[in-house]
Structure prediction request, 377 residues.
Amino acid sequence: MTFVQEPLIGSIGNACCLLASLQIERPFLVLDEAAYEASGARDALEPFVRQKAAVRFTEFELNPKLEDVQRGIEAFRLSQADFVIALGGGTAIDLAKLISALSAQSHAARDIATGRSSIQVAGRPLMAIPTTAGTGSEATHFAVVYVDGKKHSVAHPSLLPDYAVVDSTLTESLPPRMTAATGLDAFCQAVESIWAVAATDESLEYATEAARLAFENLVAATNAPTLEARQAMCRASHLAGKAINITKTTAPHALSYALTSRYGVPHGMAVAFTLAPILAFNANVTNHDCTDPRGATAVRKRIARIVEVLGGGGVEAACASFHKLSSQLDCGTLRDVCSESDHAAIVDSVNTERLSNNPRRASREQLLDILKRTEIS
Ligand SMILES: [Zn+2]
Prediction:
């Protein structure tokens, strides 16, 4: 079963024309209401939404929770909708993917979310309209869901949205902290994709361009946004999404989920906390602890790409350059959210699936050391 996304739609106006041309009887909207209003998408979409008497699902928390998915499924089944539109950040898009797909399954949502059973048939067609430049969820075939505080990822080819609308004008109203957090997610996803065990020539192309664009534009997009910086970040986010759609993420993401669910750290910042120490850790990979079948030399070659994106001069200089970026974004450090005595619990709840995609095997001790090293910065 293969699913192919339509060519990228670059403006919300074009998305409206496309929606009008599709034979949609009843759309179901998964909406971040504040983003719908602030992004300007409301002005463009509302005539279509009203004309079709669309059903709106708006009551959900940040970071997708199983309970929200279940309520969404109930509303979706009642609505008898034949098309899904997701508008908002990664949460709205991931929720929409799960609501559409899991509504069509005979297995319980909890069983699919926790991996006890899997998706058998595709859900209704989905159009994803991101209003942040971060997760790249509009370009991936997986969705995050927290079950009892633990992060799970549901993956299936049919979860790839049929249409992705990436319009940078929708991100213009994002406040600086959200631009920073979501943009850091895009940058970290790109970097992780470059060193990931599953990296391919195609993913490397997307990821390298995404990392470069994000590194060069994120500070401007956050602190003194221009149209160009916003456009570049939207492109970076989408390309990073395409990259991780192939590779998935690695150790910084694996360690981040506990920081988000326990301490409420925004996802992008939680990931960014450990990026530099893990860059240094991965750069010291040897054939003895390398998990990439292509060997340590191949991994180090890819890490050299990351170092180059960060301005060159070796791994240490690259780490310093990333620290400078995060301080310009006022992103804080791990020390701001927890103390060293909490590190063991964070390591114990590491996401082992994502960790196994890291190019260097990491023991519990080494992960603890990585968390300690975030404090040095
Ligand atoms: Zn992420």
